[in-house]
TrEMBL record:
Species of the source: Raineya orbicola
Quaternary structure annotation from Swiss-Prot or TrEMBL: Acetyl-CoA carboxylase is a heterohexamer composed of biotin carboxyl carrier protein (AccB), biotin carboxylase (AccC) and two subunits each of ACCase subunit alpha (AccA) and ACCase subunit beta (AccD).
Cofactor descriptive note: Binds 1 zinc ion per subunit.
The protein's required cofactors: Zn(2+)
Protein name, entry field: Acetyl-coenzyme A carboxylase carboxyl transferase subunit beta
Underlying gene: accD
Amino acid sequence: MSWFIRQEKGIQTPTSQKKESPDGLWYKCPSCKKVMLTHELQANYYTCLNCNYHEKIGSAEYFAILFDNNEFEELNPNMTSADPLKFVDSKDYPTRIAEAQKKTGLKDAIRTAYGKMNSIDIVIACMDFEFIGGSMGSVVGEKIARAIDFCIEKRLPLLIISRSGGARMMEAGFSLMQMAKTSAKLALLDKAGLPYISLLTDPTTGGVTASFAMLGDFNIAEPNALIGFAGPRVIRETIGRDLPSGFQTAEFVLEHGFLDFIVHRKDLKDELTSLLKMILPKNGNGK
Ligand SMILES: [Zn+2]
């Protein structure tokens, strides 16, 4: 049985010719566990080909999905956070910011940009959860405020895509003030007769839910997104009873009247376009 006997000893391939499969070639859906190629996932708008699970994505991906030819002009791209409270927990706040910036390549937890979506001029503000849990501090609030000023000046509709753990602890009261500030600015947008659409993605919680995310002329969400204010454990302990199944999912929130509709990410651009065409003034850029 000579074919069972190894003729040559050891590994013969030199290191220089070693074949390695590139990182991130495969994607395993965390919901249905099916494995697919990463580029297939991307081509399907970062949603699972099998079960429609919506993978969490950031501003770069949403801008690419929504802006025509991925062309846009970013507003206030270099705004970064100060450290008004000299806050220190496991590390000091400026170090935490610097580390998050290095890790993500972002300046803070939101990017705001102006461009065209199916030829309609629009401002899109999109949160990045990768940056300190998409937490809202002064920069997030200020960038939203300035995006709204820009909308009013140029007579443009606004879309905010939320994905956030809530207010940023390290800025404490300054973070909470952003709730009032963004809400007041949105009231000015409303007064100017310009539409605001809020898209809630997984997860949208805390001070973001309690301010701009729920103040849209239309509040819409991605399927199965977690939407809430406090977490389920806190609520359960406070009210002392079990919560219904599906509590805090987009579908549950829709059924209870807090959302207008749920949209699959692959239909997002077209649905937003149809909506804006219905509500924008005919002599505006709605055409
Ligand atoms: Zn899946």
